[in-house]
Design goal:
Elements (H helix, E strand, L loop, with lengths): L11 E4 L1 H7 L5 H13 L2 E4 L1 H9 L8 H7 L3 E3 L15 H16 L9 H15 L5 E5 L2 H11 L8 E5 H11 L1
Parallel strand pairs: 1-2, 1-4, 2-3, 4-5
Helix pairs in contact: 2-8, 5-6, 5-7
Length: about 180
């Protein structure tokens, strides 16, 4: 990720389970910084049904019930499943992005694609769907997984979505937010 991926900061963030887990509970400075910036700047937060499933599985290890937050607040929401045929302009279809990302993540993890969860690969495909259906110029995928981050970035490189979908790690996001609040 380069510093240019953070500016202008995306008006929407698609959150991965790894990001939310690392963010910690309401008592942490990371959480406070993140929520203060999101509220101050009006950033829209989203998570996918696959992330919801992981959050539900890992609830015992999580300090915050993010699924409940999506049901009871207006600053975070669950997306629908991505639609494989969706595309923006001449960019690859969401299904193609999903397949490529899943394959690349499996290669980096040195795991067979059939053994690997599809949560991370669904993030850029869902970002394509959000670009197509909502009024966002840029969407960030917030993640704390280097293999997935690099794989997703390589899939988006040299496509219509490069620069429109930013793949952001938690530490760069939080550092940036700290300088802005």
């Amino acid at each position: 990720m380069s510093a240019g991926d953070l500016t202008p900061f995306p008006s929407a963030l698609l959150l991965d389970t790894s990001f939310l887990r690392t963010l910690g509970g309401t008592h942490t400075a990371k959480y406070q910084t993140f929520i203060e910036y999101v509220m101050q700047e009006g950033v829209h937060l989203f998570f996918t049904p696959r992330v919801k499933s992981e959050l539900t599985e890992q609830q015992a290890y999580m300090s915050i019930d993010w699924v409940d937050k999506a049901r009871t607040t207006d600053w975070i929401e669950e997306t629908g499943e991505f639609q494989p045929g969706v595309r923006v302009h001449d960019g690859p279809r969401a299904g193609e992005i999903f397949d490529s990302a899943h394959r690349k993540i499996a290669e980096r993890e040195q795991v067979g694609p059939d053994k690997l969860r599809k949560t991370d690969a669904s993030l850029p495909a869902t970002a394509v769907m959000l670009l197509a259906s909502r009024d966002f110029d840029r969407i960030g995928i917030a993640i704390d997984d280097n293999h997935a981050q690099e794989s997703i970035s390589s899939v988006l490189r040299n496509t219509y979505y490069e620069g429109r979908i930013a793949v952001l790690n938690i530490w760069d996001v939080l550092s940036y937010m700290e300088t802005q609040i």
